[in-house]
Amino acid sequence: MPPTLTVEPRFKSSGTVTELMTPELMTIGEMARRARVPTSTIRYYERRGLLCADARQSGQRRYRTETLRRLVFIGMMQDFGLALEEVSGVLNAATAAEWKSIAARRLAALDEQIARQQHARTLLAATLGCRFDHPATDCSAMGAEIDHRLDRSTLP
Fold it and tell me: For residue 140, which of 13, 58, 64, 112 sits 20 to 30 Å off, Cα-Cα?
């Protein structure tokens, strides 16, 4: 449905009809400030095809709110550990199955990282409980982990 403009008697506007009906566009600096990224990041994402300016005014890039939201989404995906190539795959997925496959692989990788970190935490806490001078030679918890790793290294 096309946008409509209701005219009321004695109503005066401060802009033209075109200005009133077009959403306000942000400069690259405003978008960078709102997304908390450097302007160079936005330019880089444009070169990578992740973003594009919605308009140009006097040769300067201008962006809509939807593009700002896309920029923040890209940052979130990177916070989740996705590489820009994977982010591009999510953004350009033709089907839900495509982007869900990328997300599922990242989720599995996160689960592996969490398991490794939890194991490391358990070992470090056990080391702090050792009564002897040095964990490399005198701690039974660390000694057991060393033995376990050595046993794994002898497997074919």
Answer: 112
The whole-angstrom separation of Cα 25 and Cα 22 is: 9
pLDDT tens-place values along the chain, 156 residues long: 555 555 555 555 444 444 444 568 999 999 999 999 999 999 999 999 999 999 999 999 999 999 999 999 999 999 999 999 999 999 999 999 999 999 999 999 999 999 999 999 998 888 888 877 788 787 888 888 888 889 887 766
Residue 74 and residue 17 share a domain: yes
Q: Which domain holds residue 17?
A: 13-92
Number of independent structural domains in the chain: 2
Q: Is residue 30 part of a domain?
A: yes
CA dihedral 19, 22, 35, 102 (to 10 degrees): -170
**pTM for this prediction:** 0.71
Residue 35 burial (CB count, 10 A): 20
In degrees and rounded to multiples of 5, residue 62 shows phi and psi of -135, 145
Beta carbons of 114 and 80 less than 8 angstroms apart: no
